[in-house]
Amino acid sequence: MITEGKFTKGTPCRDCPLRPLPLFRPFKAEELAFVSHFKIGELAFGASATILAEGEQSEHLFTVLSGWGFRYKMLDDGRRQILNYVMPGDIVGLQGTLMGEMQHSIEALSPVVLCVFQRDRLAELYREHPDLAYDLTWIAAREERMLDENLLSIGRRSAVERAAYLIAFLYQRAATLELFSSGWSVIPVTQQHVADTLGLSIVHTNKTLKKLAARGLLRWAEKGCDVHDIDGLLALAGWDGLSEPKRPLI
Amino acid sequence: MITEGKFTKGTPCRDCPLRPLPLFRPFKAEELAFVSHFKIGELAFGASATILAEGEQSEHLFTVLSGWGFRYKMLDDGRRQILNYVMPGDIVGLQGTLMGEMQHSIEALSPVVLCVFQRDRLAELYREHPDLAYDLTWIAAREERMLDENLLSIGRRSAVERAAYLIAFLYQRAATLELFSSGWSVIPVTQQHVADTLGLSIVHTNKTLKKLAARGLLRWAEKGCDVHDIDGLLALAGWDGLSEPKRPLI
DNA sequence: CGGAAAATTGATAATTGTCAATCGTCGTGG
DNA sequence: CCACGACGATTGACAATTATCAATTTTCCG
What we know:
With 250 residues, chain A is of the alpha+beta class. Chain A has eight helices and twelve strands.
């Protein structure tokens, strides 16, 4: 298990594999130039590595370039709550960068590569590139929106509804990123991750997922959850699904 | 019940009653000048008025000048989840302003007065006042942090711990705003609000609060919760409490 | 005074958690 | 190639927590 990430120079932003996705809003040439300058390299982690730890002063700001991870907090006695998942295009470490210490940890679910940005230059970003500054706020507001949904789900949905919501949520996020191109759609989480996201015990989570499988909505596959019927999941959760217009990528 | 707010010219920012609080970071003269110009008036609501409704296009951006409110979402069948509370100095409507439609509603707990900002001028804020833009992002990150804590609480704490956490959280936020100057400390919520925040039923919430009262940690007073032993609540919740350095006010 | 909203209570039911195994898969070392 | 061990999934039995139902009581206000 790699805990320290491996640093490399990485690919230049102009060759960014993410930016061409239809999901992301177009980027002005000067913005691209600035971001290229803002990025100082890449950091690679293995699956289950700790990317950022609670209590750390984060020196840098990151964008996920590839891979899946999750943000979580723990209580003193070890109870863990997964707050949200991070996927390509997500910004990571912003809370820590703005407010000092990280108040949550981030762990890799699969091998993860981050773009590394120099914290010092953030002021320059705000000074010289108001559009990018706006984008940062936008991205923070988007995270808030996801957390609102999660809170609603954990607080008020039943176990089955909650599970359906979570799987549908992850499926849709990954689908818009075109992570399922290869034909099947496996979300790389264990049932323990699902349990820690839903606020349920592992045993009850297992029984709940079985119910969803019995309805033909999903199947538990090798190393994750294979979605069979996204519409069924959405209906069961009573959720409209993600409504994401074009979003910024930094 | 007032649903439409009453609009007035309001007090000029230079006489803002909030800004002098030690909680808020100092403000440069030019920032004050811009914000004065950014603010177009005030909007007053009565207790239990709907300040913003899910689905609305919000024309404006607001800062709470006085009063308590809460943000919430509902499922189709009426189940309600309170996401967070809003208090003086909090920004309201940012999600809607940035991303289009509001995805949650906001209701007043007590009479509330908002400062109203012209949405159109937001671009100008980003262009001309990078420090204020930074503050906006900072405030969004702060909200995210509070939501993280809430999520941890709802997902992983027991009913009693959850209730203790919530009351301590609200108490501390109000205390830093010096809302309890008059000697006693009553949080203006009903048990239904507590229930909808904790994700519990009203009956079980009542029994849970009784347990806290039996331990001498609080008492249910007229129109709210009177905190008797904040340290006891913090200890019971296993929570360190709010750690807020100076924060920006817009 | 009357009525409505909020708080309280006890009884009972449903949901979810805990315990204790078992099973399956997979990678490693012999 | 096979045994071993680790981790994750699965199960059944039972316990604890939380929800629901159905009153009552209390408080608040016009």
